[in-house]
Amino acid sequence: MKIQLQKFIHKYSSYSRPNQSWSCGKQAQGYQCDAGPDAQGQCRTQYECTPYKKDARWICTRNNSQGGRCTEGPLANGDCCKQVVSCQPIRSIRGKRKLLVKWTVFTTFAVLIFFLSSHLRAEFFSPGDLSFKHAKIQECSTCHAVFDTSSFEWIKQALSGNFLIHNSNKCLDCHQFGEHAHDAHGLKADELKQLTPNKVKPEKSDKKQLACLNCHLEHHGENTDLTNVAKQNCAYCHDIEKSMTQNKHPEFTQYPFKQNTKIIFDHFTHSKKYYYNRAGDQLLETAPESCLSCHKSDDSGINMGQQSYDNDCKACHNEIFEESESFIVFDIPELAFEASELNAQWPEDARGTLTHFMILLLASDPLFTEAVTDLEDYFDLSELNKTNTLKLIKSIKNLYFEIDNKGPIALKQRLIKAFNCQFNDQGQSSCSINETELDQLVSLMPIQLLCEAKTRWFPKLDEEYKAESSHYCANNNHNSESDTGEWILEELSIEYRPTKHNNPLIKTLLNLSSRELSSALTEKTRLELFNELISEDASVQCSKCHSVESVDAKNFKVNWPASDKSSTQKEFIKFRHDAHIKYQDESICNDCHQENSKDGYLDSYEDHDPLTFESNFITDNKACLSCHQNSMTETQCQTCHNYHISPPLL
Predict the structure, then answer these.
(1) What sign for the dihedral angle of Cα 373, 378, 384, 388?
(2) pLDDT at 650 over 50
(3) What is the DSSP letter of 272?
């Protein structure tokens, strides 16, 4: 049941209308009029009541607080017989407050305009001292774009609230964060989505641009840390659990690696097989004493790098190259017909096959493509008829004749055509592959041995082509020896044996054969060549240590360096190894990098998918929380996480 504070019946109440700007001047005496003043504060009451007519009779309506109905009653024309003297209305509390607000606002704006127009406006509006890093800034206009504009622009900007991004552009005059500086983490939306799938709240996935002022607040004194961003700022976009406020970080999944490492190194296989004696209870002299024997922090103290091959791996793995076997690069294939049947010059004891590299060189010759068009297996020439066999013989002889006459130029011209290269009118080539690697491959070819092989295998070739004896080979002497490999001229083949690590020939062949080619013949051959070079049967299995990634279904990438330092993009996670291990025992590494009980490290590389990865180690966040508590060190998000990812701060 509602209890009214006042009865709103004219007989019992004289409603003072507190919601109006003016009140009756007689209110203080307790008999204010019913009508009250008008909006302009003028008295509009002339009589004590306003009679009403009932059954041809006028009835007095004076309320009880003013004496009730009068004895005289209304006049004949319906007017009240009691005329009153007009009062002087006074402002109500509401009216006084309204007037006070208006004058306050006016005065405030007047004071603001005065200081905005004076030379003291910088001191007057400064909210506090700048931080130490910005203390040398003297002019407010350095950071505030509106400072040197008119007073009207100051007021307009203050009232609009759309000045944060505009002022952030002033920050970018000194701090370089790329063209997407105002996007989340300084990355384009599609790039960020690839790096952080399912890390952002759905309603914040299409967030507007962010201003520097959203996180970095100035004018809080010289000791202010501008990078000290509250967790709530991160939680606004990211789905951070409430437990984060209690220093309970979510469990790590694949940290420190989210994809396979470029160098394949199974720590536990090496440890169990090569670091200890057969009994497994004594460390061998050649084994590393600790993790720090192989891993050293870089100059920045952030990343832990590994030793080079020569400084570390060579001691054990150099025997792979010392005992390596040669493989055939050029060969004389066995034919389905005797040379006498074909009436052609061909080595009688030829028992070889077409090699992958030879097919790439022969693919630019129309005779060869016509000869092998219907073959499913290019290594089995028994299905060729006499016509196609003669075309094959002619094509192979063309190759050796061109090498004899042009030398390396002949090889490069053929490889250029094989690897999707085209010539312009000036004779310059345009390739989809790295032409520097193509030139290197040609420079590594045994031209002198090829010339000797031509003379030995096809002694009457000049007579067949009716050529003069003054050829490239006759006038040039090429050294086929190399400090990283050995070319060998056998009876009917030319073989190559790698003798050292970082072999340029194998490396170049792998790089060139890792990319898709347009011709069906060369595409099939280059893919078979690539698979042969990374197989377990390869003379030197580079892919045993250097991981292979599939760019797509037909293109691959061999990871030669241990890490890719060409990218300027920073990681989301920042961790300084030197700060954590500098004053610790060498066993500290095992506190964070604990052995992973799952044995899937090597298996994760088989599908060439870098995201299919199983690390040798796992990291438990309990190791971090043992130190990162309020009593010992900071626990803000930015303590371990970078916000600005690309490019780095200049």
Answers:
(1) positive
(2) no
(3) I
